[in-house]
Design goal:
about 5% strand, about 525 residues
């Protein structure tokens, strides 16, 4: 019997196993992807829960509920009436053309040109009703403007512009009060300006917070005018001190950061809708792939972490601030598009806080002068009768700066650059809007420009000088009125026909009927 042929079965089995290797690789990739997606989801969920447990909103609906007005009257209703009564831009341009935009107002302690004072008084008289309504609104504690955070990523904030104009109006009212030596009224209107700023403290939007910071700065400048006038009583100064001490922008900034984080997080709920790509098939496919890949979850984690980083800086102020995080990777679509330079915002908060501390100290120095008849030799003389301790300049990590210059006293912080310039409030060209090139100071007893000489960058040409005056408001020129009218004619040809010439050598206050 012939011998049986050897079986080929084992080799067939070995050849049939090849497909299991790539299958196993695919299964491992699927498992790894599932773990990656699950981990990313859990990271997002844990962060959202932590934010919510800390009492902060994470959805637009929660943000709406978080921005609530206290029970009782709502100051926003009265502010709206004031906005409607305010004879704003048109009257402002006719009365004070370009004032505040291209021409600097005289600083605290500097003489007000008579022509300017007349124009300001005219503008204030025409807005008596609006000013009364602003005072009424300022006396109401609760304020909630009609902002709907569920309407989209960028909610409408139509009240911010009128609030800024209201702050400008109160500035002119205070200037008029001081020109007429109505010091009681000037103090009251300084408090009203601080209340206008406070009306935005609960609004959880960074732009609203920054408008509030700007309004506070306006109030401090007018309080500085009151101090320079020397007409406020010790009791009124104490009232101003108490109001400024409660005007910190730390909590409003923290709320603004929390609101921005919440609105940014809402993008991830429906990115196609928010980014307006639902009708664009290619873009919609990219967003869908981005979501499916799990990169959206990583983007969401990154966004929350960065926003929480900036929020913690607002909650727990430490100077110097740590460096801003690096730009997010390109494939973090939302973070790359939406994360603003929030480090600059927090730096602005530090500056605003030092303005507040410096102003509080200046008020106390003026109280000391009224009681003792002279400036204190140092800020330590204020302790403990007027203040518990000399305030710390956070930019220098040492007590606030103070110096006597002749009959003047200078209270100052060294500012963000950390360079002590002995209280100089201007940079080398006389600019006062630089964040780093000057000290944050309050000068009492003399105009700051008399103490700190300003170097001119270059002298204007005669032709430029003709236009810089805008009708002789700030330079002596026998032909000032005609220069002004020529300028108005030039504006009219450029699309501003509503501006009218002023009477040659006329008294502006006699023109009230024309407006």
């Amino acid at each position: 019997m012939p011998e049986a042929a050897p079986s080929n079965t084992p080799s067939k089995k070995r050849r049939g196993l090849w497909w299991k290797i790539p299958l196993g690789g695919v299964l491992l990739l699927v498992l790894a992807f599932a773990i990656f997606r699950t981990t990313a989801y859990l990271r997002v969920t844990s962060r959202i829960n932590a934010i919510r447990d800390a009492g902060y909103p994470v959805t637009p609906k929660e943000l709406n509920a978080w921005y609530m007005v206290a029970s009782g009257p709502n100051a926003a209703d009265v502010y709206q009436k004031a906005f409607e009564a305010h004879l704003g831009d048109e009257l402002f341009e006719k009365t004070l053309p370009l004032l505040g935009d291209r021409v600097n107002m005289p600083g605290p302690g500097e003489p007000m040109p008579e022509d300017v004072a007349d124009r300001i008084a005219h503008y204030v008289r025409q807005n008596t009703t609006a000013i009364s309504l602003l005072e009424e609104a300022a006396a109401i504690e609760g304020c909630r403007f009609p902002v709907d955070f569920e309407s989209g990523l960028f909610p409408l904030l139509p009240h911010l512009g009128p609030l800024r104009h209201s702050g400008r109006l109160m500035t002119f009212q205070i200037i008029t009060d001081l020109e007429k030596q109505k010091y009681d009224s000037a103090v009251d209107h300084c408090l009203t300006t601080l209340s206008i700023a406070k009306s935005l403290d609960q609004e959880p939007v960074l732009i609203s917070t920054l408008v509030g910071v700007s309004l506070r700065a306006q109030a401090y400048k007018q309080i500085h005018r009151v101090l320079q006038s020397g007409g406020a009583t010790s009791e009124q100064l104490q009232t101003l001190f108490d109001a400024v001490s409660q005007a910190s922008c730390r909590n409003p900034m923290s709320r603004g950061m929390a609101g921005e984080r919440c609105m940014g997080m809402s993008i991830f709920l429906d990115p196609a809708e928010t980014l307006d790509v639902k009708q664009k098939k290619g873009a919609r496919a990219v967003v869908g792939l981005w979501w499916f890949s799990g990169l959206m979850s990583l983007d969401r984690v990154y966004f929350i972490d960065i926003m929480s980083h900036y929020s913690s800086q607002a909650d727990i102020p430490v100077w110097p601030l740590p460096p801003d995080p690096n730009d997010p990777p390109r494939f973090y679509l939302i973070s790359h598009l939406m994360l603003p330079a929030l480090g600059k915002v927090n730096r602005a908060t530090f500056r605003a806080e030092m303005q507040r501390v410096t102003m509080m100290t200046a008020i106390t120095v003026e109280r000391y002068r009224q009681a003792e008849g002279t400036w204190p030799a140092s800020l330590q003389n204020l302790v403990p009768q007027y203040i518990d301790a000399v305030p710390i300049d956070i930019f220098a990590d040492k007590p606030l700066g103070y110096s006597l210059k002749g009959d003047a006293a200078v209270i100052y912080s060294v500012g963000q650059d950390g360079t002590d310039q002995d209280g100089r409030p201007y940079d080398e060209y006389g600019n006062t809007n630089s964040d780093t090139a000057m000290d944050i100071s309050v000068v009492l007893g003399a105009p700051a420009k008399e103490l700190f000489l300003i170097q001119e960058e270059e002298s204007p040409s005669p032709e430029e000088e003709q236009w810089l005056g805008y009708g002789g408001l700030y330079f002596e020129d026998p032909d000032a009125d005609e220069h002004y009218n020529t300028y108005i004619e030039k504006l009219a040809t450029d699309g501003f026909p509503e501006l009218v010439p002023r009477p040659i050598n006329g008294n502006w206050s006699e023109q009230d009927e024309a407006y």
